[in-house]
């Protein structure tokens, strides 16, 4: 087959990710494929203007752990709002109420590469599931899919579904740009990076009551 109708149509809008903060949480099963997908996602995030300091990457053992990780990372990013290392250190007094007041450090300039503490605008969940000889594949695929969808609906934060559900090693390799026999395929991590920027931008705009027709 030389052509296909499948694939993501490139958006006509160029989205600016310079103000966005994006999280990537990935499993470690099938590591070589995972590494390629994460790299593809990060490259596209940067191409869209997302600052490296605003890309947070965490890892969990397997795909079954992705929903909990995404949920807690979204919650944690909201806890970070309004706090920073320098703020937390400023005014600390270890000597008790009668001791001289410690010198405040809130005026200490933050390092040039200080991380942002704004909430995540989107989370990319990356995993690779390859069908084996038992029902394990089906159970994990269904559970993870439903859980990730529920998280984005409950939190209002886009969760990009970056979980490959392949029937064979070759299918997974081709979808991570590592295909064999002269057929490298396409790295879907790139699509997930672009989707995160687009959805993060949309949700910000929608949250301000702004829509394409207005």
UniProtKB/TrEMBL annotation:
Keyword 4Fe-4S: no
The UniProt record lists the keyword Oxidoreductase: no
Gene Ontology, cellular component aspect: mitochondrial intermembrane space; riboflavin synthase complex
Record-listed E.C. numbers: 2.5.1.78
InterPro entries per record: LS, LS/RS, LS/RS_sf
Signal peptide: none
GO biological process: riboflavin biosynthetic process
Pathway the protein acts in: Cofactor biosynthesis; riboflavin biosynthesis; riboflavin from 2-hydroxy-3-oxobutyl phosphate and 5-amino-6-(D-ribitylamino)uracil: step 1/2
GO molecular function annotation: 6,7-dimethyl-8-ribityllumazine synthase activity
The entry's keywords: Riboflavin biosynthesis, Transferase
Class of the enzyme per the UniProt entry, highest EC level: transferase
Catalytically driven reaction(s): (2S)-2-hydroxy-3-oxobutyl phosphate + 5-amino-6-(D-ribitylamino)uracil = 6,7-dimethyl-8-(1-D-ribityl)lumazine + phosphate + 2 H2O + H(+)
Pfam families linked to this entry: DMRL_synthase
Record function comment: Catalyzes the formation of 6,7-dimethyl-8-ribityllumazine by condensation of 5-amino-6-(D-ribitylamino)uracil with 3,4-dihydroxy-2-butanone 4-phosphate. This is the penultimate step in the biosynthesis of riboflavin.
HAMAP family: Lumazine_synth
Record family assignment: Belongs to the DMRL synthase family.
Protein name as annotated: 6,7-dimethyl-8-ribityllumazine synthase
Lineage, broadest ranks: Eukaryota, Fungi, Dikarya, Basidiomycota, Agaricomycotina
């Amino acid at each position: 087959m030389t052509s296909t109708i499948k694939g993501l149509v490139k958006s006509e809008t160029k989205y600016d990710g310079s103000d966005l903060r994006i999280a990537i949480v990935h499993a470690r099963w099938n590591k070589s494929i995972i590494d390629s997908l994460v790299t593809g996602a990060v490259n596209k995030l940067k191409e869209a203007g997302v600052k490296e300091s605003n890309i947070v990457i965490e890892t969990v053992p397997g795909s079954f752990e992705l929903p909990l990780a995404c949920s807690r990372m979204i919650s944690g990013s909201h806890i970070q709002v309004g706090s920073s290392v320098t703020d937390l250190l400023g005014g600390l007094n270890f000597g008790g109420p009668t001791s001289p007041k410690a010198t405040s450090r809130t005026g200490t300039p933050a390092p040039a590469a200080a991380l942002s503490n704004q909430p995540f605008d989107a989370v990319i969940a990356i995993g690779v599931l390859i069908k084996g000889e038992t029902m394990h594949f089906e159970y994990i695929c269904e559970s993870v899919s439903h859980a990730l969808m529920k998280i984005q609906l409950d939190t209002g934060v886009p969760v990009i579904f970056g979980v490959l559900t392949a029937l064979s090693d070759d299918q997974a390799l081709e979808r991570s740009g590592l295909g064999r026999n002269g057929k490298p395929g396409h790295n879907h991590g790139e699509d997930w990076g672009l989707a995160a920027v687009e959805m993060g931008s949309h949700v910000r705009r929608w949250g301000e009551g702004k829509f394409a027709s207005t």
